[in-house]
Amino acid sequence: MDLETARAQGILCEGQDGLVRVLTGGPEATALAETTNARRLQIYRDSAQRQGVGVEQVQAVSGASLRQKHPACP
């Protein structure tokens, strides 16, 4: 399963912090979320360091953008 499929099927949703959350599903969904979030967190950390801002700020901006494009968590 890939991220797009998981979001389309309501298995994963986008959180306000720019990370995905598991709504339903088993170990495969959890593994996908963990991998996706680890990759995103590294990108957020790198971006925050380059911009001289906190990681939380980068996550909030990314989260808002992702929630406009993809299913948001309830």
What do you see in this structure?
A two-stranded antiparallel sheet has the order 1-2. The chain has one domain. Strand 1 and strand 2 (20-22) form a beta hairpin. It has helices at residues 3-8, 27-51, 55-69, and strands at 12-14, 20-22. It is mostly helical and 74 residues long. It is globular and about 35 Å long. It starts with a helix and ends in a 5-residue tail after the last helix.
Rg, alpha carbons: 12 Å
As laid out across the biggest beta sheet, the strand order is 1-2
Q: What ranges have pLDDT less than 50 throughout 5 or more consecutive residues?
A: none
* Structural class by helix and strand composition: mainly alpha
Largest sheet: 2 strands, antiparallel
Number of strands: 2
Helix content class: 55-70%
How many separate helices? 3
Overall tally of structural domains: 1
Strand fraction: 5-15%
Straight-line distance between termini: 22 Å
Oligomer classification: single chain
> Which shape, going by the Cα principal axes?
globular
* Arithmetic mean of pLDDT: 97
Listing every helix as H and every strand as E from the N terminus to the C terminus, the arrangement reads: HEEHH
